[in-house]
# Entry
Amino acid sequence: MDKSSENTSKRKSGKAKRVVNTRFAKGQGYLEVLESIEAKGKCPFCPDNFKYHKHPTLKDDDKWLLTRCSWPYKNTKEHFLIISKIHKEYFSDLSNDDMKSVRLLVDWATKEFDLKGGAIALRFGDTEHTGATVCHLHFHLIVPEVGKTVNFPIG
Ligand SMILES: [Zn+2]
# Structure
């Protein structure tokens, strides 16, 4: 966690920072990983602690990276994550440059993997209200199996 995110967390809560929310783990394997992360208290998506993720970075710039999701949702043909390289938790933390980076990474993945269609989703803010497991902002780029429905839980 960098200095600015420490300051943000103290400002928001005044107590130890939550980095993950085990309540929304999808499956036992993921729950165990999240519990281990929670015990250490370090954000798993911040660059200095990005060791739990199972897949390589496919494309990045100075602000964001694109990778496959370690824990893809049911009925996904493709499930990518686009993860900020700076710890952010709120939609209002996103700048125009952030949105431009995300757009370029989505465009790249769309061409590279010949994605015919899909969806982009982002949870933000207090995980008790979102269903996110990791507090650090990350977009999901999801392509469903044709004829199947991917459920993206919120809350
Ligand atoms: Zn982080």
